[in-house]
Structures are given as structure tokens and as C-alpha cells.
């Protein structure tokens, strides 16, 4: 049997429960994975808190879009993987479980140099960051403003933009400014006066912005600082982003899901993280049975770095 986290109703983390289910047998092109770590992302609680609707027909919901684990069995035509292979699964649905049947196309090999927790928390933030950096056309010599640079996606964006030869200015709470410096960014506090603080750091201007914070303040500051709105991308505020005519990324209304660029980024991300050129900071790990506690910490913004569930 597999222990699986489900949301049996819409609500707060109290609706989350651990149930037992048959993991199933891998069919053609599928693989059975024993999960060692599953990444926690804001999308996971948005699924059941009503942020993305509350259609009762969708209940019970399975949670979790990414995991890392070991291949246990391979179905017909799933020959690209073999039992014992260490893999990262993304994008998947229902990664909060100790076993998972997934299409082999959703797997990439886990590098030996990457531990389970980092591997489990790498891909959703990493692929989103690759998409955002590409959408904002970040390149060498650019000065890029990253809103929410201390967050899961923001930390990835910051490192990837830095690797591309851009100068990064990142917003975060003052307590996280040292972390931003470690990531390669010049830190600045969010809050009133943001535009002036950024201008003081870069008299020659800002070329591109990536918003992972999703506040109106972040987007309004972005269009005040950058003349070309095609170089402003938001992953977290489609409503204001659409009003302002900036790039809206993701699955929301009018968003660019970037399906191909994100899928194609997975092997490169694994390679970069496995060789230590990309850091995945794990802020907290929780047992699968403690999922509600993990979500409360995530929703409250108490954890810097990825939250990871271990079965
Ligand atoms: N569209 C997509 O495809 C896509 C993909 C992934 C994620 N997302 C969305 O993107 C957002 C970020 O995801 P994540 O995983 O990076 O979340 P996260 O790890 O929780 O990070 C959020 C960051 O926002 C910062 N923040 C909090 N309040 C802020 C404020 N008032 N102004 C500016 N920054 C503030 C926090 O920084 P401090 O604590 O330092 O203040 C924190 O580091 C979420 O809404 C998520 O659902 C969208």
C-alpha cells in the first residue's frame, strides 16, 4: 500500500489527511517510483484553499507536483529507466505519497551529487525560473530586478540571471539580505519607497524585471523602472500583470504556461544542481504525516528555502 496525502474538502491545512491506497501497476510507458522526497510549493495549498476554485467534483484532491525517488518497476515501453534508477519526477500530480506511478517522460535522472531533499525541491521552482529568465530575455550586461529573490523561485532566478552575466538586484525582507548576497544579488527591502531604493542602487537603470512576489507594489514599481514592458515578467500576479501589459507566466488566465521550455530545462537544472553550480536551499523537512504543519509554515512565510516532505 502507498500512503497518500489528500484534501478531502476545500479549506485550510486541517483538510489534509493521509490515506492508504494501492499504488497501482505501471502501464505502457509508465514507471513506479518509491518517493524519497517531495517538494512543497505555494501551488500545493492554492489547490485546496479555494485560490483556484472550489469545484466539489474535483475532490478528493491529490497534492504535490514534484518528487525524487527510486524506480521500483517499469511498465511496457518504459525502457528508458530501470529498477534501482534514482530519478526526479516533474511535472507530476500527487507527489505527496510514498509511491507514485508516472509516465517515464515525466522523469529525469537524479545526479548522484544531489541529495534527496534538494532533488525533490528543485524542479518546480527551477523550471519556472528558467522560463522567467528566458521570457524577460535576461542576458550579459543587464541589470535585472527580482521581486521575492529570497523565495523558492526567486533564489533560482537570481542564480540563473547571475550565471548569464546579469547584475541582479533582489527584493527581500531585511533578515534575508545576507542570503541574497550569497546568491549573487544586491539586496533591497520591499515596501514603500522601493522605486527610489532601486534607483539609488542602479543610476543607469533596470533592463528587466522578474516578479515572483505578486504584489501590486512589485508590478507598479517594475513598470516605473523599465521602459520596455515585454521585459517585465510576473509569475504571481496575472490580474495586475495583464492590466499593465507585462508578460504573465503560468497556467492562470492569459498566462504563458511555457510547457516546452520548462520541460526542456529539467536536465540542465539537474546537471547544474548536481555539480553545485546551482544551490537549492532546503529550509525545512517534514514527515509526510506532518503535511499540515509544513503547509502552515509555508503559508505563514516562516521558512526561507524549500520545504520538503519525506515519507
Ligand atoms: N506562474 C507560475 O508558473 C508559478 C510557478 C511557481 C510559483 N508561482 C507563484 O510564485 C509565487 C512565489 O513562489 P515561491 O515558491 O517562490 O514562494 P516562496 O518560496 O514562498 O517565496 C515568496 C517570496 O515572496 C517574498 N515576499 C513576501 N512578502 C512580500 C512582499 N510584500 N513584497 C515582496 N516580496 C515579498 C518573500 O520574501 P521575504 O520573506 O524575504 O520577504 C518570499 O521569499 C507564489 O505565488 C507561487 O504560487 C507561480
UniProtKB/TrEMBL annotation:
SMART domains: PKS_ER
Keywords: NADP
UniProt-recorded name of the protein: NADP-dependent oxidoreductase
Organism from which the protein derives: Actinotalea soli
GO MF term (any one): oxidoreductase activity
Keyword NADP: yes
Listed Pfam families: ADH_N, ADH_zinc_N
Keyword Protein biosynthesis: no
Tree of life domain: Bacteria
Annotated CDD domains: MDR_like_2
Domain Enoyl reductase (ER): 11-309
Amino acid at each position: 500500500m502507498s500512503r497518500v496525502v489528500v484534501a478531502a474538502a476545500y479549506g485550510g491545512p486541517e483538510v489534509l489527511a493521509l490515506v492508504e491506497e494501492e499504488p497501482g501497476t505501471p502501464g505502457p510507458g509508465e514507471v513506479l517510483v518509491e518517493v524519497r522526497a517531495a517538494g512543497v510549493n505555494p501551488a500545493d495549498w492554492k489547490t485546496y484553499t479555494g485560490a483556484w476554485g472550489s469545484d466539489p467534483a474535483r475532490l478528493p484532491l491529490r497534492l504535490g507536483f514534484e518528487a525524487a525517488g527510486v524506480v521500483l518497476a517499469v511498465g511496457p515501453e518504459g525502457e528508458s529507466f530501470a529498477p534501482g534508477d534514482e530519478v526526479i519526477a516533474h511535472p507530476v500530480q500527487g507527489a505527496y505519497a510514498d509511491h507514485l506511478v508516472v509516465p517515464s517522460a515525466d522523469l529525469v535522472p537524479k545526479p548522484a551529487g544531489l541529495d534527496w531533499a534538494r532533488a525533490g525541491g528543485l524542479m518546480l521552482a527551477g523550471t519556472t525560473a528558467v522560463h522567467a529568465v528566458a521570457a524577460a530575455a535576461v542576458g550579459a550586461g543587464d541589470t535585472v530586478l527580482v521581486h521575492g529573490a529570497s523565495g523558492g523561485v526567486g533564489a533560482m532566478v537570481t542564480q540563473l540571471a547571475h550565471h548569464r552575466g546579469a547584475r541582479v538586484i533582489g527584493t527581500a525582507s531585511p533578515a534575508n539580505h545576507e542570503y541574497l548576497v550569497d546568491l549573487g544579488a544586491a539586496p533591497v527591502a520591499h515596501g514603500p519607497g522601493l522605486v527610489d531604493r532601486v534607483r539609488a542602487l542602479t543610476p543607469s537603470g533596470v533592463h528587466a524585471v522578474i516578479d515572483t512576489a505578486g504584489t501590486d507594489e512589485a508590478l507598479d514599481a517594475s513598470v516605473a523602472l523599465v521602459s520596455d514592458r515585454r521585459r517585465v515578467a510576473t509569475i504571481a500576479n496575472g490580474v495586475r500583470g495583464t492590466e499593465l501589459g507585462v508578460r504573465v507566466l503560468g497556467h492562470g488566465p492569459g498566462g504563458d504556461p511555457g510547457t516546452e521550455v520548462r520541460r526542456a530545462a529539467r536536465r540542465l537544472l539537474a546537471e547544474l544542481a548536481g555539480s553545485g553550480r546551482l544551490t537549492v536551499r532546503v529550509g525545512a523537512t517534514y514527515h509526510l504525516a506532518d503535511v499540515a504543519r509544513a503547509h502552515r509554515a509555508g503559508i505563514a512565510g516562516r521558512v526561507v528555502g524549500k520545504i520538503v516532505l519525506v515519507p
